[in-house]
């Protein structure tokens, strides 16, 4: 399966830019681009009523575990 990516220029308000940058700084998202993709994915999933929106989060969690970037339930 080949994924096609299209470049797009989107103009955000200063408030939107600051909000996204704060999310990235708090490491809620790895980048502004990824934040926008995830937020759009979430909105699309809301409209389709399936769990496809969760896939990026599951993938991220699996990658974190593979890197050893987690704590056990007992440590928590």
Write the layout of secondary structure elements.
Blueprint lengths: L13 H12 L6 H17 L6 H13 L9
Approximately how much beta-strand content do the residues carry? under 5%
Ends: how far apart? 39 Å
Q: What is the quaternary state of this protein?
A: single chain
SSE order, one letter for each helix or strand: HHH
Average pLDDT works out at 87
Pick out the low-confidence regions: none
Radius of gyration: 15 Å
Helix content: 55-70%
Number of strands: 0
Judged by helices, strands and strand pairing, the structural class is mainly alpha
What are its keywords?
single chain, 76 residues, mainly alpha, 3 helices, globular
Overview of the structural elements:
This protein is mainly alpha-helical and 76 residues long. The chain is built from three helices and no strands. It has helices at 14-25, 32-48, 55-67. 0% of the residues are buried.
Short structural summary:
By secondary structure, this protein is mostly helical. The chain is 55% helix and 0% strand.
